[in-house]
Specification:
By secondary structure, the protein is mostly helical. About 75% of the residues lie in helices and about 0% in strands. The protein contains 4 helices and no strands. The mean pLDDT is about 95. Pfam families: DUF6952.
């Protein structure tokens, strides 16, 4: 998971475009835009993170850093 890639997706893609990219990756297809990542799994992680962050920003009127912090908190909990 690379934060600069996630930030780029949040800043350049719409929520609808990210959801379409998630669906494409899940169906082993190429998304309509480039998603950086070493493999499809990392690309999916980047897209999923960007979707979560955009939702959090909209739902809580928060900024990118706050939403990113919430996402990484959830990742840490799921790992432990």
């Amino acid at each position: 998971m690379k934060m600069p890639v996630i930030r780029h997706l949040v800043e350049t893609q719409t929520l609808d475009a990210l959801v379409a990219a998630e669906e494409a990756l899940l169906e082993e297809q190429t998304p309509a835009f480039e998603v950086e990542g070493e493999d499809e799994g990392e690309q999916l992680t980047h897209v999923f993170a960007a979707i979560f962050i955009l939702h959090h920003m909209q739902d809580h009127q928060s900024d990118f850093k706050t939403a990113l912090r919430e996402y990484t908190k959830k990742v840490r909990v799921s790992i432990s």
